[in-house]
Amino acid sequence: MRPMLLACLVWLLLMPITPAPPARAVGFTVTSPLDAPDANPGDGICATAIGVCSLRAAVQEANATLGPDTITLAPGVYVLGIGGRGEDAAATGDLDVTRPLTIAGAGAGSTIIDGNAADRILHVIGPIAVQLNGLTLRNGSVPRPADISLDGGGGAIYVVGGGFLSLNNVSVSGNTATSGAIAIDDGGSLTATGSTFSGNTASFGAALFTNGSATIANTTISGNTSSSSGGAIYARQGSLSVVNSTISGNSASSSTVGGGGILIAVGANATISGSTLSGNNATNGGAIHTRGSLSLVNSTLSANAARNGGGGLYVGGGSATLSNATLNANSADVQGGGILNSGGSAIVRNSIVANSPSGGTCAGQVTSAGYNLDGAQTCAFAGPGDLAGINPQLGPLQNNGGTTMTHALLPLSPAIDAGNACESIDQRGQRRPTDGNGDGAARCDIGAFEAPGVSVPLVIPLPANAPATLSPAGTATPTSTASPASAPPTAAPARTAVPPTAVRVAAPPRPDEATATESATWVVVTEPTEAISADDDTLGIVQAGEWYVVIAEEDDWLLVASDPAWPFWIQEDERVEVHRP
Ligand SMILES: [Ca+2]
Ligand SMILES: [Ca+2]
Ligand SMILES: [Ca+2]
Predict the structure, then answer these.
(1) Residues lining ligand 3 (ion), CB within 5 A?
(2) Enclosing domain of residue 559
(3) Looking at the CA of 438, which ligand is closest?
(4) Which neighbouring-strand residues pair with 201?
(5) Residues in a beta bridge with 538
(6) 136-190 confidence digits (pLDDT tens)
(7) What's the gap in Å between 523 CA and the centre of ligand 2?
(8) Strand, coil or helix: what is 215?
(9) Is the same domain home to 310 and 191?
(10) What does the pLDDT read at residue 396?
(11) In angstroms, what is the span from residue 182 Cα to ligand 1's centroid?
(12) Ligand 2 centroid vs 200 CA: distance in angstroms?
């Protein structure tokens, strides 16, 4: 016998006999909602002292096998009732997971794991993959530790040692920690899909605190509260991707920093696409506060508020680039209702910043890369194709298709076909560009929403600006104070006919004012009035001072249009003045 082989045999004979954990994957079906430990962890049998399989016993047995295991949880409420923090064998307090595991519930509405406010719920330890499907994690709680270590993180789940956590159809609600209902540490990762985070509280990042790689997709994060920064998400290091998701109604209470929706720290980078952040609030950065690297694409920031600056976006350092974003109705008590750049780089293209109730649209240096629409005059955009001081004519924040709410461009919006080199889809996932003004050329719209293409073969030549003699609108003599005959108009009469086939003008000449006003009947709006489509839908409000060519008249209604546009109806009453050739 050769010496080497002999040595091996001797080694085998001398080796102590210790059972290796089984490598095969095992499935455990939990049979009881009662919280009790396994009677004999590692024997491959999920059984408590009374012979039922509890969630805790299943986790203990799963930890004893090398392969990926699956625990099946039927509908019910599974309360973790055994106190004892700081224990990492799943015997007390949180459920410590040390080997690859899937926990499959019956749905977020029916399978609930409740932390009983005694400890966090799951502690994922080591570089393992853990997947949760179809369940709710609620009422987990981790107090602020005596030291300020991150061990105070993850009211629901704490991932340490580089683990990979994925959540599918999971609700994370009502959890409390220093950092995050979910905390990702040591470069680990989170992928959350089709999930919700609500009503969580923390000092930093009430829903998510990440030092790793986090992807949030088709997920809603709402109503979370941080006593410091990052009302929903605090990205401290690593990368954050938010896709087709909603972040709404979150708040951060720090008096100096902020990020009511998201805080992006110096060491982090974030990409937000196809998403809406609305109704979040903080001191600086009602929706987003960034000091790292931010790319905001095809996304909407709506009605967020800052107590100081940057109601939509606060740039405190690093770089922020916005492309096809719509920032609407964001407010700041001091400055920068839409955007405040206070020490970094802010570059904006193909984007709308408008309708800020306070703070103006922009403050600080906000650089245009072209084709933006500033609803006020405060962004000082100076790139090609920029528009300023005009109403973008946005619809309300609502479901316009896709997975998130958006502001549609009303048919009269000057943002339609006024962008350039946009993304290939809009926030809703609709293909872009489209020909939104019916001139035969598909061009990008400004902002996150691409108006549908229209095929109205109409081009009405008009001068770019109303003749000076037409304004101010207030010169019209009000007649509404007088007769009861001018009572408010009733509902629009049924209108069967689509607009008459109007006038296709190939390569229309651009007339001077005299030509336009002498050759056509036109109307100037003296008080705001409704624009009605051929299908009797309300398209929006036409503001005083607008003027249009009259294409057709029917009873007391006028079919009008401007350039570029398509026809719509307005009522011929005291709110308009009609001028005939
Ligand atoms: Ca056992
Ligand atoms: Ca434990
Ligand atoms: Ca278009």
Answers:
(1) 417, 433-434, 436, 445
(2) 468-481+494-579
(3) 3
(4) 176, 225
(5) 532
(6) 999 999 987 655 455 679 999 999 999 999 999 999 999 999 999 999 999 999 9
(7) 75
(8) strand
(9) no
(10) 98
(11) 29
(12) 21
> In angstroms, what is the span from residue 454 Cα to ligand 3's centroid?
9
SS3 category, 269: strand
b/e per residue 405-437 (b: at least 16 CB within 10 A): bbbbbbbbbbbbbbbbebbebbbbeeebbbbbb
pLDDT per residue as tens digits for the range 122-138:
999 999 999 999 999 99
Measured in angstroms, how far is the CA atom of residue 37 from the centroid of ligand 1?
9
Residues 33, 30: Cα–Cα separation, whole Å: 8
Residue type, position 553, single letter: E
Would you place residue 530 in the very low, low, confident or very high pLDDT band (cuts 50, 70, 90)? confident
Answer whether 203's CB lies under 8 Å from 176's CB. Answer: no
Q: Which of 162, 196, 217 is the last residue of a domain?
A: 217
In a domain, 405, yes or no: yes
Residues 199 and 259 occupy one common structural domain? no
Residue 504 has pLDDT above 60, yes or no: no
Domain count, the chain: 3
Asked whether residue 12 is domain-assigned, the answer is no
In terms of residues, how long is the chain? 581
- Which residues, 6 or more positions from 452, have their beta carbon under 8 angstroms from its beta carbon? 430, 434, 436
Mean pLDDT of 12-36: 69
| Ligand closest to CA 416 | 3
- 3-class secondary structure per residue, 510-523: CCCHHHHHHHCCEE
Nearest ligand to the CA of 57 is 1
CA 120 / ligand 2 centre spacing (Å): 9
Quick one: which ligand is closest to 98's CA?
Answer: 2
Query: What DSSP element (H or E) covers 204?
Result: strand 201-204
Q: Which ligand is nearest to the CA of 371?
A: 3
**What single string gives the DSSP state of each residue in 37-70?**
--SSTTSS----TTS---HHHHHHHHHT-SS-EE
